[in-house]
């Protein structure tokens, strides 16, 4: 169909799918141009399409065939959420390539929204996610009356597998000699170091054998397991064993890419566990070395130091925690500012711990000297949302404004990407009116992405939220 050919948009209809749509569906569902930005693979046979229509399209709460003269040329779906998220629904669509550029998808989306408002009375927000590259789909939503709210980083993926992380820390090996010499012989790298540039392979081997390998904690910063720099932590001894000195360097080819900041965050997250007496990590930087100063400012090591000082720990809940749980979970100030409900009895709280908190994939008590004073949890996504997890938390009001929740969030970030290897994005949303919780996520290093209107129901009221996120590539490997 040529773009010159006019389409009478009044002939566009939406209807449920039928098995008899199989041939028409295969025409667009088997076209890679159409499926490039969809979450399902290109269909290759009628049998695949029959199964998809029968198992997914027909039983779906709102999956409609976009039709011209009752012939299927695409689809539009509305997926309403449940529970406290029932105020919103996701919208998705695709159209046969020969019908692109005629306003058909925009028309279909508008028709679907009109029907959806009647079929799903709890829904007050329809939202659509579009890949940044997919400009045409962005225009569809713009024309359909959707408001662009923000860019959500690493939010979802379709058929493309996520790349494994390339950056890592490991002990040096003698076989690193050539890679080590490449950056350790560069005067620009060693300019601010306490050792001179290495000038030969023999000198590099001696350094690795006599200094780097026997060092109590010196790690090679590796990209695809190739050494591109180092990070070193040297704990003091005796009465000074509470502190350690950190130093680092990276090859000039990798400056300005956030590699050193990421490497230091990995190092700091590990070293407090390996040296239990350690409560302070310090670094000295020459005043001229502005790049290194920025690295340490981004690291914000002072907050991590507070973890040991305040004895803040995260651990799974136990049934024996019920009394401590009730102390903060029955706090009016906590319930009012969170999505928690009131617990009216000890039995009610025990049931919650037994049926919800303990079997949850990642639900931890925030503990001060092993006594629960709040909770923090991560809900990992599934299916095409497996690349992201959602963080939530609450803390007893008498512990507010002490930096405890920020520490707890940082503890989560230091481990959650390792525990859920498919997770690339950790996100949290906060009521636009709760400034303190916004500061928690900002101090913990999450990035504000935008305001999502009428996003969730809290205590019977649909509220606007601010979405924050951090990525695996921001934090650790």
UniProtKB/TrEMBL annotation:
InterPro entries: Acyl_CoA_acyltransferase, GNAT_dom. GO terms for molecular function: acyltransferase activity, transferring groups other than amino-acyl groups. This is N-acetyltransferase domain-containing protein. It holds the Pfam family Acetyltransf_3. It comes from Quercus lobata. SUPFAM superfamilies: Acyl-CoA N-acyltransferases (Nat). Transmembrane segments: none annotated. Residues 12-167, 167-315, 312-464 form the N-acetyltransferase domain.
């Amino acid at each position: 169909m040529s773009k010159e050919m006019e389409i009478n948009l009044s002939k566009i209809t939406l209807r449920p799918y039928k098995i008899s749509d199989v041939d028409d569906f295969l025409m667009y569902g088997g076209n890679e141009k159409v499926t490039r930005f969809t979450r399902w693979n290109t269909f290759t046979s009628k049998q695949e399409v029959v199964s998809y229509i029968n198992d997914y399209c027909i039983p779906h709460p709102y999956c409609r065939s976009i039709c011209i003269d009752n012939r299927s040329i695409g689809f539009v779906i509305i997926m309403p959420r449940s529970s406290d998220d029932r105020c919103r629904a996701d919208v998705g669509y695709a159209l046969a390539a020969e019908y692109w550029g005629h306003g058909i998808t925009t028309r279909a989306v508008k028709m679907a929204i009109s029907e959806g408002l009647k079929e799903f009375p709890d829904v007050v927000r329809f939202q659509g996610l579009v890949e940044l590259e997919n400009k045409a789909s962005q225009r569809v939503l713009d024309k359909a009356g959707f408001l662009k709210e923000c860019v959500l980083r690493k939010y979802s993926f379709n058929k493309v597998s996520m790349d494994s992380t390339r950056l890592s820390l490991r002990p040096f090996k003698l076989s690193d000699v050539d890679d080590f010499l490449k950056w350790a012989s560069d005067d620009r790298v060693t300019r601010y170091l306490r050792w001179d540039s290495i000038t030969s392979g023999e000198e590099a081997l001696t350094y690795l054998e006599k200094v780097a390998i026997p060092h109590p904690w010196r790690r090679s910063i590796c990209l695809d397991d190739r050494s591109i720099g180092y990070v070193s932590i040297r704990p003091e001894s005796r009465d000074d064993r509470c502190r350690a000195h950190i130093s680092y360097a990276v090859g000039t080819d990798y400056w300005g890419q956030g590699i050193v900041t990421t490497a230091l965050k990995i190092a700091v997250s590990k070293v407090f566990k390996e040296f239990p007496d350690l409560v302070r990590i310090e670094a000295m930087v020459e005043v001229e070395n502005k790049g290194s100063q920025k690295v340490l400012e981004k690291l914000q090591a002072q907050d991590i130091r507070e973890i040991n000082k305040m004895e803040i720990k995260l651990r799974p809940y136990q049934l024996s925690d019920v009394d401590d749980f009730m102390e903060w979970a029955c706090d009016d100030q906590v319930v009012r500012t969170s999505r928690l409900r009131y617990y009216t009895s000890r039995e009610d709280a025990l049931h919650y711990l037994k049926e919800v908190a303990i079997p949850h994939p990642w639900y931890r008590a925030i503990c001060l000297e092993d006594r629960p004073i709040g909770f923090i949890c991560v809900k990992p996504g599934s299916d095409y949302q497996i690349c992201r997890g959602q963080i939530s938390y609450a803390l007893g009001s008498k512990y507010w404004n002490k930096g405890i929740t920020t520490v707890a969030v940082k503890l989560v970030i230091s481990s959650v990407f390792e525990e859920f290897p498919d997770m690339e994005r950790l996100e949290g949303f906060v009521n636009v009116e709760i400034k303190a919780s916004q500061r928690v996520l900002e101090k913990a290093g999450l990035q504000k992405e935008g305001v999502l209107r009428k996003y969730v129901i809290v205590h019977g009221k649909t509220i606007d939220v601010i979405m924050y996120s951090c990525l695996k590539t921001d934090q650790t490997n």
